[in-house]
Amino acid sequence: ENIIAEYHEVSERYNFLSQQINDLNKGTEDLQSLIKELEKQIEEKFNEAIKEINEQFNHYFRLIFNGGAAKLVQKREQTDNGNLNWGIDIKINIPKTQLKSLEILSGGEKTLVAICLLFALVKQSKAPLLVVDEIDAALDEENSRRFAEILKALNQKTQFIIITHNRMTMSAVQAIYGVTLTADDCSQLFSLKLEEAKALAE
Q: pLDDT tens digits for 131-187?
């Protein structure tokens, strides 16, 4: 009788644990299926975003360099231990030159390429606010003018806070906040709305 009772007890426990294992296996399968679906959606969204960024990147590159082409290229490499290394290369073609690699560009040209990519990312992501610090420091006057024109266009949907000493950039903004010296050599904060200043000047 004890053996029969023990059998029923063990059998009950076995059936309970078997059910738990089946539930866990089903949960694992559901999770794996969900992970695959999410990975597929993420890759689709990422590829869409890269395509949009590439279009904008090429647009701003052509605008700033007066032609040429630029694009982001995805890189995937298999390592020796079987892992997948993933990255992005920047391919450029500056007009009227043989320059096709970032490494051989001057500091100013690298800055321009970085600005093109930044503007492309801002345009694609529709960022509401962007803070940039001395992004235009390496630009000459002509490129500063182009930079200012693009800022004006992007300013319709993105608010920029720009730290700069570039007068061309300052001419494109709506308000200036800064520090100036008073007659007795003391620092004083000031603010200036350009539209109001123009109206007063006229």
A: 989 888 888 888 888 888 888 888 888 888 888 888 888 888 888 888 888 888 888
User: Structure pTM?
Assistant: 0.70
First to last CA, the chain: 110
Q: What is the mean pLDDT of the segment spanning 20-26? A: 93
With contact defined as beta carbons under 8 Å apart, do 92 and 70 qualify?
A: yes
Residue-wise pLDDT for 90-105, tens only, equals 888 888 777 667 777 8
Q: Which residues contact 55 (CB under 8 A, 6 or more apart)?
A: 120
Give yes or no for a contact between 67 and 95, defined as CB atoms under 8 angstroms apart. yes
**What burial letters (b/e) apply to 44-61, b meaning 16+ CB within 10 Å?**
eeeeeebeebbebbbbbb
